[in-house]
Amino acid sequence: MRPIESFEVPAPPRVNYINAQYGLKSWLLTKDHKRIALLYLGSITFFFFIGGLYALMIRLELLTPQGDLLQSTTYNKVFTQHGIIMIFFFLIPSIPATLGNFLIPMMIGAKDLAFPRINLLSWYIYLLGGVITIYALLAGGVDTGWTFYTPFSTTFSNSYVVATGLGIFINGFSSILTGLNFIVTIHTMRAPGMTWFRMPLFLWSHYATSLIMILGTPVVAITILLLAFERVARVGIFDPALGGDPVLFQHLFWFYSHPAVYIMVLPSMGVISELIANFSRKNIFGYSFVAFSSLAIAVFGFLVWGHHLFVTSQSVYAGMIFSFLSFAVAIPSAIKVFNWTATLYRSSISYDTPMLYALGFIGLFTVGGMTGLFLASLATDVHLSDTYFVVAHFHYIMVGGALMGYLGGLHYWWPKIAGRMYPEGWGRFSALIIFVGFNLTFLPQFIAGYLGMPRRYHAYPPEFQVFNVLSTAGASILGFGMLIPAIYFVWSMRYGKHAESNPWHLPGLEWRTQSPPPTENFEVTPIVTWEAYEFAPREETEVVGKFRPELERI
Amino acid sequence: MAIEATTQPVHGHRSLQHHFENMEQQREAGTLGMWIFLVTEIMFFGGMFLAYALYRSLYPAAFASASNHLDITLGAVNTGVLILSSFTMAMAVYFTQVGKQRPQVLCLVLTLFLGLAFLGIKAVEYHDKYEDHLIPGRLIPGNPFNPAVQEEGQPIDHHKLHLLPGATLEKVEMFYWIYFAMTGMHALHMVIGAGLLTFLIIFSLKGRFDPEYHSPVEVVGLYWHFVDIVWIFLFPLLYLLGRHFEHG
DSSP string covering A273-337, please? Predict the structure, then answer.
């Protein structure tokens, strides 16, 4: 271990990517990956709050057993649109398009992504898809569930299926282009000395995510295209009345949409690896296992889609294989959880806000993953399929997993992104509120679902009311908790304390440039001579006298 | 024959974008990007190939009947046209790499011409299918999928559909829907390719490419070959497989 080079804190008034140029045009036509990341950050936050409003309506309706707030058709549209907005327009772009976009070039010591224009294009494609989807929502909405199952979506649904489908189809290309850009960047743009095994694990997980994006998204694109044509032209690839097979739709849809879950959670795992190693000031335990488990999840993730079809006409033998493979995904996931835990062991943990989210993630992801095994088992799935157990399970992965990682990462890199600190006290407070609110929302749903409460109904038998009241109360706390960061992030952009180059005192490349970084990230292309997460031992730093994080933190 | 050495130093090449270290890195990134894009294209077409495979195995007789009605001569000619265009494209890449501008422009123009010829022949085929009322779906008013069926013992009329035992019109319509979806998507890619070629021709007339900077030609070349290869799969699957049903 060699000591970490000295950190020269730059004088505050310097040209950075935010003040390099002014004016709306300089943002809308920017090719800087950091500015594009901010454009994405703004847009996905907008969609997150729309999706959140739908969630609020769902929880209010389910407060009472009768369908008194919304009619059944309205309720169908509300949960469909909650799913579509949250999945396609928030969760899938969330970490990759914001944190990934911002950090991937910085972490490998590059000036930008390989294709800056394509990067900007992907944001415009995202916006176009978003505008079309919002048009569909305003024009009358869509009621098929986010899964668009045929033949309901092609033949019977009386809502804006084609417009919504078009929005998702277009949005898919934004995701494909992002993934393509990341893969090429990681392959070709690494700074001298930045070998594959010196890369932060954030990059490995984004590499795996990008693989899923480029392999999976085109399949759902063609599927939705065929579905739209089928609805418009009345042809019948998926319509049993015309000789088609609706189960083919489910196969094609889940071939993307199951791996899409890993598009959501893998980047989050990358963030958590960073947080765990850096906030326990210790090299990650089993670096290569954590790195390759990301790739393993990406590969296995493509082989398990059939577990969504256990209660369709899928062959029971196919079901057995899909069940087995679904269990196999638990192995790389568990490798990660065990390695994170082992990293924490005998380390020097600081409980800053990002670390609170990281610790929350480990617990919630474990619950989400373990309950997934119930659903991957053929026999129990028959009982649990289409109940609130499924809803609770995937919210533990998507909210407890993906969202926790997103929020943790946003806090962690906020000093670099904005050049300002967020208020630490409020940060810890809201992390706690979000954790409590989340569990109160979704734990009762496991029980309600196990007892047989079906999903996607606006009314339910009165014996389930206690769980739904708890859940709605939890959702209110969760929503309140979400508002706090939204407010203080905006507040801190103007009033927050100025951030140093390296407020957490870490060795990563992104911390070796000023905050916020200059447009080309580094004054000179860095030469990497250290491993990822290489923390200098205490004695050595004191002898050299350059970098003493322990002393500075006291 | 002598390859002209570029007089410009590597770092100062006018086509080097600011975020790359050198031309080699820029070229590598461009080529890898296109290969990855082609992977997404394989997955995109893959969905339709899966649908084809499924329904062909479910309804072999209907697929054979419908397949026999496709114009095998036009299909074969088109296959030849595309293979030739792949050759001229490859030559265009070669001439760009060695820095010969005039044959490079010529090869690009030839490729564009062959691509447009393919689209023209495809349009003729589509028109034939329209005449024979073989357009699936209900999009065309007053012209539903309602082909006249060839009856036993009548003199062969090639505009009538010859239904094999076990085939129904509904399943024939399924074949034509898959046929139009796949060849239509392929034709759309050809149109995009023709657009890209037009840009290449303009840039190469301006002398933008040289041995140091040839990756746009190379990358469009990769795309063009990919679109050709899709057709190489489509032709036997749609036109040829299933012909043996009729002849024993």
Answer: HHHHHHHTTSPPTTHHHHHHHHHHHHHHHTT-GGGG-TTTT--HHHHHHHHHHHHHHHHHHHHHH
